[in-house]
Records
---
Amino acid sequence: MNEIKHSARCMCGAVVLEATGPHQSGEYCHCKWCQQSSGSAFIPWVSFRKEQVRVLSGELSYYHSSPGCKRGYCRDCGSTMSFHTDEYFDLTLGIMDDPESFRASRHIWTKSRISHVKLVDDLPEFKESGP
């Protein structure tokens, strides 16, 4: 069976990732940790199960940002690349080679949303992590 493969890479190309199969979800995260790690108002994430993603080349560096979670980045160019839990390996939408293949289904952690960032879509909003 030929499963779809999604490739992703950091800005300098030192770290290349591959996700196999359908993603589990897509979401815009407005938490303070995502704001700080990206330098932006929010991060669009594409969620895969941990076993669906592998590092093809290079090596992710990690920062343990909160209990049970770590964030992956490229130590060479600093690209924010991933978010890890025991179950999930989330990838930032911006590192995907074909970001148009993914759509978000919700906004999470909107209690930390920057007030002048206006949400103009009709996606559900969750003050915390959501369902």
---
Amino acid sequence: MSAADAVWDRPERLVRPLLIAFLAACAVDLVGVLAGIPVAHLVAKPMLMPLLAGYAAARRGPRPLIAALLFGWGGDTLLLFDADAAFLIGMGSFAAGHVCYLWLFGRARSPLSAGVVYAAVLITFVALLWSGLPADLRIPLTGYSLLLTAMAYRAGTLGRYAAVGGALFLLSDALIATGIADWPQLPAPDFWVMLTYVAAQFLLTVGALAPGTGRIGVTAGAYREGSINI
């Protein structure tokens, strides 16, 4: 058996290298964004989700998780292009990823109180943002925000790590939306968008890979504790 055959027969050998490669790509991307080095962002950003998806696959993660990460890669790549059509298609790719996450979460119950909080945040945020959004983006962004909020709310079915990941995903896209609406921005806004985004996807992955998580859905018992295993 060749070395390559041994790797494919035992994908767990790739777990640590892929995780290290993902973290390295995150570091390159974040430093590039913060230091104003566009080429670092252009090179590193499209590598992030394929590496994380590869890590999840090597850990024998559920297919909806891997699909969600690859749809995230599609969105990441399309949003590198400064064009309205690329933005809308990229947003659609992220939306497809959220559908995959919702499929992954299955039918486990989520706390009603958390749902009320997320619904209130969504309604308030969209109402405040509405007048500042371009007219042709108001409906698409509202629909996307509804789907994203549902994903963030349901993420807690995979445990605390995924719950935080869902909330960070919501925060990351909220930062993008405030930029579109010309709200005052934090210093280095792109850095905070990317930091919250990569942290969100990683924590959602950790939650999905936690012991006891089903391959298509999740076992009963919402908001159980996850664990990080590499």
---
Amino acid sequence: MPAVTSRGRGRRNISEINMVPFIDVMLVLLIIFMVTAPLITPSLIALPKVGKANLPRQPANPVQIEIQKDETVQIRIKADARPSNVANVAADVIKFEPGVKAAAAEAVPVVISADKSIRYETVVKVMGALQEAGVTRVGLSVQPGK
């Protein structure tokens, strides 16, 4: 054992830190974390449902943007409907609405009805395109719960 040496003057301790147990413990912890990390599921966001509360009423004749499951977009005004896409939806709303110019686009009420199975990113892109075009009155259509 190299901890004690003697040369005639008494005992002297040699101070050394043994790193082997520390490294063993760290490697075991690393292996435990590597094995358990893939098993942890990411948390899911529980979105609130709309109950029978007093919902604000929709404007009289809003422009309705419908986004289907396959991410196709339709713009409806009253009974008239035209197809569009996510990239051009804002320009199509301004062209489609009779009597609305780009400068007065902020007064146009727009309601987005999106299928619940589409990506959130698609709805955000449509809202962003409408905001860049100057449309400020944008709402989301919901179905009242039980």
---
Amino acid sequence: MSYIQKVSSYIEKNRSEYERLLQEMVQQPSKAGGESGIQDIVEKRLSEKGFDVDRWELDYEALSKHTYFCASRPDFTGSENVVGVLKGEGEGKSLILNGHVDVVPEGERVQWEHDPYSGAIRGNKLFGRGATDMKGGNLSALLAVEAIQALGIKLKGDIIFQSVVEEESGGSGTLAAIERGYTADAALIPEPTNMTIFPKQQGSMWFKVHIYGKSAHGGTRYEGVSAIQKVHTVHEAILQLEQERNERLDSPLYEGNPIPVPINVGKIAGGTWPSSVPDQVTIEGRMGVIPGEDLLEAKAALEAKLAALAKEDSWFAEAPVEVEWFGARWLPGEIEDDHPFLHSLIQAYHSYKNEDPVLKASPWGTDGGLLTALRGIPAVVFGPGETSMAHYPNEFINLDHVFEAAVIMAETILQWCEVASVNESVH
């Protein structure tokens, strides 16, 4: 019997135990600042399985000095990372398994069929905030390692299991792990991809554009300049930039995606009085960052596009728009098409499913971008769960996919880290 068959058999025999563990994880309402409960579970599990465990609270002051730091709150009180290292026997390649435990707020509870933190199982679905994004993927990664251990297999390379916080607000948890010195030869990010492999992941940044007009009485509005009317011109320029940026993307990984790297305007606010011509409007949005593109390059593209409006409309020469970058941001990331780790994952998928995996470019960012940009760690995103369920009421995950992903991850680990020895008496 092959390793992949043995792993699959172990998982099938112990499925009910791992379903209960996932329920327990989802039942922890681990919003920002409240992650201690889920981290207690992870720390205990890693310790029991022989990992060297490191748990620490994020240092806001130290992290805030970093170029790529961003946060949505003034401190990280109560937010702790847990990292477990399973040392290999040596002479093998190491792997980071990186997953976040923070979840977004549950929203209006009346929109939920079950309590948002029930972990209810109905048929093949487990419901609850964080089930898809991304506690199901975290369990798959943990189970993959535990299955390998249960078979008495010792690896040559190290496994670094990272249970991080703050991903939903820009990645400070992973940044803290990087600054603490954790590194590896590759990384797997088990975010919800619906079992699709993402070798590329776009980044994103939030922006504000301040548009100015000239106030006047509404009865003589022709004596003023409406900032609201100027919004249309600015928005059209943003859409034009979006089109120009996406036209240059020719990777087959973007096939079928009408706008691979969007620029979205999500909020408009302006004006002060119904009888006054509005003299200021602010729009807020999210700018996608192309894999391989520097954040400063992306910022310059938007700023230049809006500065050029002065050539089309003399008002913008007199009152230029101002671009402000604020809030969350995620770095883009990618792995080479011929990288051995990507090949290992593809091969593992094919070995288990007996079919080729679907490869696409991610429509959103992950912490993998930080690992690649700051430490040169090639990262691939692959996991159970559907993006369409993340952040939504009645979030759920397909349990079959959780366990299928675990088998594929285990086979990938065996190929990448390599088998050092097998204790046949264990199983």
